[in-house]
């Protein structure tokens, strides 16, 4: 029971982050499942099964608040589902010894991306109102879906910053549309895992715990972001993902680092992480000091 409560809290925390940033539910949850010894394919399957319900609640919440651009959802979501099914099939056919370091490497890369992206640049937009074309969104969805299934997460870290960087859609609609499209990705990935693995290694109690925690968090994510700036939250989450997956890689058969080497690497990573968070806090305070006070409607747009 204690483990189920902890998993529910993991699901809640991960979805609060995901609903605020448009990313990191999968990478956060899968990283923690791997840390407690879950089979990589089963970890990804567990997270994606939970995400079916979570993304449904999250998408409905974003739709209610007007945060969804439906053409974008379809243009990125359908190719994303194809990529997710292919990724699930690929991961399911790898041995655990091979899959675990590969998944940790993918998650580590995503963690570095999230930490760097939000620490150095935060969220920026330009060129609002220009259309997002299918030739941009379809390949993006295909790649993001494949990475999401093989890494146990990655839909948001790949899709959200790419669309934000285009500057053509306001942040609240980027996050809302990516979260809503993830419903299709989660279904496709889950079908792929179940077809390849059956229910082997999947603890449906864990699925339910993650689902309950995430479903509770989905409607309040917009409230959270009003109190924790996305820039700081991204730095915090990115650091957690980097440290945890570095530990897995250093202990893997690929590296098998000595204790002294591992501790030295951990010390460096913690120092870099602390510096990144401190930098994000200072940068956010500077931006708050020079920025004009937004109107209530502008506050809602930025927060969502």
UniProtKB/TrEMBL annotation:
<keyword id="KW-0812">Transmembrane</keyword>
<protein>
    <recommendedName>
        <fullName>Probable membrane transporter protein</fullName>
    </recommendedName>
</protein>
<feature type="transmembrane region" description="Helical">
    <location>
        <begin position="232"/>
        <end position="250"/>
    </location>
</feature>
<dbReference type="InterPro" id="IPR002781">
    <property type="entry name" value="TM_pro_TauE-like"/>
</dbReference>
<dbReference type="InterPro" id="IPR051598">
    <property type="entry name" value="TSUP/Inactive_protease-like"/>
</dbReference>
<feature type="transmembrane region" description="Helical">
    <location>
        <begin position="262"/>
        <end position="281"/>
    </location>
</feature>
<feature type="transmembrane region" description="Helical">
    <location>
        <begin position="204"/>
        <end position="225"/>
    </location>
</feature>
<comment type="similarity">
    <text>Belongs to the 4-toluene sulfonate uptake permease (TSUP) (TC 2.A.102) family.</text>
</comment>
<keyword id="KW-1003">Cell membrane</keyword>
<feature type="transmembrane region" description="Helical">
    <location>
        <begin position="72"/>
        <end position="90"/>
    </location>
</feature>
<feature type="transmembrane region" description="Helical">
    <location>
        <begin position="40"/>
        <end position="60"/>
    </location>
</feature>
<feature type="transmembrane region" description="Helical">
    <location>
        <begin position="102"/>
        <end position="123"/>
    </location>
</feature>
<keyword id="KW-1133">Transmembrane helix</keyword>
<dbReference type="Pfam" id="PF01925">
    <property type="entry name" value="TauE"/>
</dbReference>
<keyword id="KW-0472">Membrane</keyword>
